[in-house]
Design brief:
This protein is an alpha/beta fold. It folds into three domains: 2-39, no CATH class; 54-149 and 284-307, Response regulator (Rossmann fold), CATH 3.40.50; 151-281 and 310-317, Response regulator (Rossmann fold, 3-Layer(aba) Sandwich), CATH 3.40.50.2300. The protein is built from eleven helices and twelve strands. It has helices spanning 2-8, 12-20, 27-39, 72-85, 101-108, 121-129, 151-164, 180-195, 212-223, 237-249, 283-295, and strands at 54-60, 89-95, 112-116, 134-137, 146-149, 170-174, 204-206, 231-234, 259-261, 278-281, 304-307, 309-312. The protein has a six-stranded parallel sheet with strand order 2-1-3-4-5-11, sandwiched between helices. The protein has a four-stranded parallel sheet with strand order 7-6-8-9, with helices on both faces. GO terms for molecular function: DNA-binding transcription factor activity; transcription cis-regulatory region binding. Residues 1-42 form the HTH lacI-type domain. This is Substrate-binding domain-containing protein.
């Protein structure tokens, strides 16, 4: 630890707190120590079991309308089932601004936390400073264990499928770049285009507002491109369904004029007309893995778990004729 402390220009005690995820230091210091430790070969991926009687599931308030959120509700259910199977109590709360996070966690009286979705650095720093073991789901941050979908592979498969069906201009409708999963899906899309020798810089439309109206506006902007894309890979199913709806309003046929592929395989994907081709994510599995990684890490397990995905082909992406 002395070598890490010397290189990071902090005390040995600060290094110890950073490596153990303990409170008492700033987020920037914690990140710097962890980055130095990783660079020096310190294994941050060996996890210790957490003895817990109660686990808290924290969801950012931007994701917290579970009735209308077809992704995080199954994740929550996976956490709940895994806790019940491990004879551990379970509690849920939403979190927004950084202020009051420590008080909320103290009120919950939990022994560990599963935190799902995107988190701003300030909010995540407050969660870490509460001093409880933390596992991230659908997010990643230096030094913290996480469970994520294989976003790169899923996006690559989706884009490759559209190319294989004979589409010439494969566009992507994406979301905010600060989201870990979205960045990875853009990476997979770009890699598939690059491997196929396709241009890629002018075919990405970013949704500006995380609402159904924001999805509709982004879909309209994408379909207004000239020349128009003949295929769209959307970063999630909600955005893909917005593209299908916008096509219908413009008199465009799916998939004859525009093929569409989404990501997540929410329930609505199989009921749309036509059925939505999508990348299936084991959403409950993400929640179960988060609890397992917290309570029962396997010997020498790495701290970043990746859950496989599979491409589900439906009517929205039949081959072009």
């Amino acid at each position: 630890m002395r070598d890490i402390a010397a290189r990071a220009e902090v005390s040995v005690g600060t290094v110890s707190r950073a490596l153990k995820g303990q409170p008492g230091l700033t987020e920037s210091t914690r990140v710097r120590v962890l980055q130095v430790a990783q660079a020096m070969g310190y294994d941050l991926g060996k996890l210790r079991p957490v003895k817990a009687r109660r686990i808290g599931f924290l969801l950012h308030e931007s994701h917290s309308n579970l009735a209308s959120n077809p992704f995080y509700f199954p994740v929550l259910h996976g956490v709940e089932v895994a806790c019940r199977n491990s004879a551990v109590a379970f509690t849920y709360s939403q979190v927004g601004e950084p202020g009051g996070v420590a008080d909320l966690i103290a009120l919950l009286e939990v022994d560990g936390l599963v935190c799902a979705g995107y988190w701003e650095s300030g909010v995540l720093a407050e969660i870490v400073r509460a001093g409880k073991p933390v596992v991230l789901v659908d997010h990643a941050a230096p030094g913290l264990p996480s469970v994520n979908t294989d976003n790169v592979s899923g996006a690559y498969q989706a884009t490759q499928h559209l190319i294989a069906t004979g589409r010439a201009r494969v566009a992507m409708l994406t979301g905010q770049a600060e989201h870990h999963s979205i960045r990875q899906r853009v990476e997979g899309y770009r890699q598939a285009l690059a491997d196929a020798g396709r241009a890629q810089d002018d075919l990405i439309v970013r949704r500006l507002v995380d609402t159904e109206e924001g999805d509709r506006q982004a879909a309209a902007a994408l379909l207004s491109m000239s020349p128009r894309p003949d295929a769209v890979f959307a970063y999630n199913d909600r955005a893909a369904l917005a593209v299908i709806q916008e096509c219908a309003q413009r008199g465009l046929r799916v998939p004859e004029d525009v093929a569409v592929v989404g990501f997540d395989d929410i329930t609505a994907a199989s009921y749309s007309q036509p059925g939505l081709t999508t990348v299936a994510v084991d959403k409950e599995g993400l929640g179960r893995e988060g609890v397992r990684l917290l309570l029962h890490p396997r010997p020498s397990e790495r701290a970043q778990v990746v859950v496989p995905v599979r491409l589900v082909i439906r009517g929205s992406s039949r081959a072009a004729r």
